[in-house]
Design a protein that fits this description.
Layout lengths: L5 E4 L4 H12 L5 E4 L10 H6 L7 E4 L2 E4 L1 H11 L11 H14 L3 H19 L5 H22 L13 H11 L13 H14 L2 H24 L1
Parallel strand pairs: 1-2
Antiparallel strand pairs: 1-3, 3-4
This protein binds glutathione.
């Protein structure tokens, strides 16, 4: 927002990446203020004052403090006058984006996140092996979500909510990328969703890899660790 806005974020967090990609690919001036979750920086007194829920992302725009990626993305489109396709002003096209984002937070988000948490985060934090049956259950929940993405949202169109990219695609793609941190491409056997991911990637340009560079490093470390363990 006009160069004054700050995004408090950790780029290993999916909703933070979605906001960062929107800001970067639209050339919206902002300052990225890093909040390292692994160091517990989101629990510091200063950050607690900003967001008593101790979660990232948080946007601060000229004294206006906003939490929740969904709200932040929609606010940015209006506040910064971003292209209409990101969050259309037409009531029905907008309702399609709201329809996905409402569904997202109880489907794509928890299901993809859980795969990463069970495969990468929990074993790293507790130094215990992966809970195989729990991971299998998470993968089967995620599979049902992927089925719905294909059969409902992408049924007849190039992007989740229409013929052009919207904030729904950003929220979704950032979640579906997360299991890559454990060297797992959840779209491996899903050509329709792979084509959609490529379209999103081309639509946002270098902002995509830029925002995901931290996740790519996590994947590289994970691969190095698992190949050492196999020796
Ligand atoms: N619904 C929120 C979710 C935010 C969220 O869960 N952020 C996580 C990182 S992905 C976080 O800050 N976790 C720290 C914690 O809960 O302690 C959004 O979409 O912004």
């Amino acid at each position: 927002p006009a160069g004054r806005g700050s995004l408090y974020a950790d780029l290993l967090s999916q909703p933070c990446r979605a906001v960062r990609i929107l800001l970067q690919c639209t050339g919206t001036p902002h300052t990225l203020r890093s909040v390292a979750l692994r160091k517990g920086e989101h629990l510091s007194p200063d950050f607690s004052k900003l967001n008593p829920m101790n979660k990232v992302p948080v946007l601060v725009d000229d004294g206006f403090v906003l939490t929740e990626s969904d709200a932040i993305l929609k606010y940015l489109v209006a506040r910064c006058g971003l292209a209409d396709h990101w969050f259309p002003s037409d009531p029905q096209r907008r309702a399609r984006v709201d329809e996905y984002t409402a569904w997202h937070h109880t489907n794509t988000r928890p299901h993809a996140a859980k795969v990463f948490i069970l495969q990468v985060l929990v074993p790293a934090q507790t130094r215990s092996p992966v809970d195989g049956p729990a991971l299998d259950r998470a993968l089967s929940d995620l599979n049902r979500t992927l089925d719905h993405l294909e059969s409902m949202f992408l049924r007849r169109q190039a992007f989740l909510c229409g013929t052009d990219i919207s904030i729904a695609d950003l929220l979704c793609v950032c979640e579906l990328m997360q299991p890559l941190g454990g060297d797992r491409d959840v779209l491996e056997s899903r050509p329709q969703l792979q084509r959609w991911r490529s379209r999103v990637q081309s639509a946002v340009g270098p902002a995509f890899d830029h925002a995901h560079s931290v996740l790519y490093s996590v994947r590289d470390r994970y691969k190095a660790k698992t190949s050492r363990a196999r020796l």
